[in-house]
Amino acid sequence: MKSIRNIIRTIARGAFMALPAMAAISLASCREEEPMKSVDLRFLAEDSYSLTASDAEPITLYVSSTDSWVVYSQNPDWCTISPSEGEAGVLAEPTAVTVQYMDNAELDDRIDTLIIQSDYWIGKWVQVLQKGTAYMNLTPSDPSLPQDGGDSSVEISTNHDWSAAVTEGSGWLSIKGASSGSGDGSISFSATKNLGEMRYGTISIYDHNDKVCGELVVTQAGVQLDPAVVLVKTDWTEKDYVIHVESNSEWTVTKDDELATWYSFSQTEFSGSQDLVVHFSESHASAVRTATFTISSVSSDESLTPVSKQITIKQSYQFLPSMIEFTQSEIDATWMVWGYGYSSNGDDMIMTAGARTESRYRELGYHTFKVKSMKQDARFRTELLYNGGAYDVMFRWGGDASTGKTFSQSGALNDAIEPVPFDYTQPNEFSYYFAPNDDNYMYVEYMLNGTTVGTYTFDGSDGGTVIKYPLEGQITLLIGAESGADADAVVVDSWGHLPVIDWGD
């Protein structure tokens, strides 16, 4: 009780609900002979509780009031309440009320309402759902049938009346024999020959109240032709994009527009499950390029209906931002310098170890930094920070001259992408494209000298940070020099930005 008192003292009137004196006014006309009365009723209880049919966990409520109070059930035969009433007391010392429900021996669920009341003021209605004893198990739960059709069945284990009906696929799937029963039993069903794609039907099972209590998804074999993706979005660079296709037949791929020559296939005829390789040429367009192609099953059995799937491909335009030189006026207007050891020669930002600068209120999209030179022991990094209250380091991307490789970091995850070699003795562009994906999770493409070398999605699938779009905070860009003792350890020539790609979706 001491810990509960501390809670009450801390939350005061926050978590406990109070009934003010104004409540008494509503009955004043009925009790004109009585003086106005003020009642302060407080309680700690959930809006609803869900209990098992048997051996239900007890419910604990906390009540205090400046007047006598009661807790009662609309179905008093279902439960015991202890204590069920109390006298006026100290508000900071609530009484723990235990409600214990008896086993529900009926098939159906039952709903009760607990009422917390002080004098004639009702403070809260609490709903309690207690499950019934009805159950049903289906074996197997995912039956399948061959392409040529035939019969199958599932076993039903239950303690109540039931019925079954085909609710999806009635054109080819039907129930054979009895479609209802009482207690344990079985359901037999049949399918006609499948002349097309693998298909799925549903048999719904209804309980004694004619409510759906189970579903059987029946799979019938057929032609399978399932590409891993039906929408491809890629950057402007020349590359091969691999799409895996699961299939149990011969199949081909054809362009829907033969005049679209900016992509091609290394192979057009396939057998079974294989990889489809799409070759993209480098884009010099100023807008997203879009095309579609179709994969189709092929069979010597003319009775079978061919299966076709259309795949859409989109290739972005080149990112060619207007690069801005790091003049002193640009640094003063846009960048906030932290640390020490930076200078400008009029066109470049020159950094020693520990120097860094940031630019706030940046936009999503493509950001690039052109590094003119690095000393052999220098390390250059770009960093994007997202302000969702306090700064959270979302990712870092840069190059380490001492190893001759790039590095990356997402939160506490080092090498979020595989490091790649770079020549620190030559100018290099470190870039990233930060944008929402089709599922509205933020993702980043890491680029070195215009070529994507890796991607990372902030969907939490690897235990990392989850970032959803739209963003609610501030984006800050930061660049800095690490290691290197020379005054010109890292020389940054310019930077640029392009907004999020308009894919035309």
CATH class of the largest domain: Mainly Beta
Q: Please compute the radius of gyration using only Cα atoms.
A: 35 Å
Count of distinct strands: 42
Average residue-wise pLDDT: 88
Helix content: under 10%
Report the CATH topology name of the largest domain. Jelly Rolls
The number of helices is 2
Q: What best-fitting shape do the alpha-carbon axes yield?
A: flat
Strand content: over 45%
Question: What would you call the structural class?
Answer: mainly beta
What is the CA-CA span between the terminal residues? 60 Å
The profile of the biggest β sheet is:
8 strands, antiparallel
Low-confidence stretches: 1-31
CATH architecture of the largest domain: Sandwich
Number of domains: 4
Brief digest:
With 505 residues, the protein is mainly β.
Task: Describe this protein's structure.
The protein is mainly beta. It folds into 4 domains: 2-130, Immunoglobulin-like (Sandwich); 136-220, Sandwich (Immunoglobulin-like); 225-315, Sandwich (Immunoglobulin-like), CATH 2.60.40; 324-498, Jelly Rolls (Sandwich), CATH 2.60.120.200. Helix content is 3%, strand content 50%. The chain is built from 2 helices and 42 strands. Strands 28, 30, 31, 33, 38, 39, 40 and 42 form an 8-stranded antiparallel beta sheet that branches.
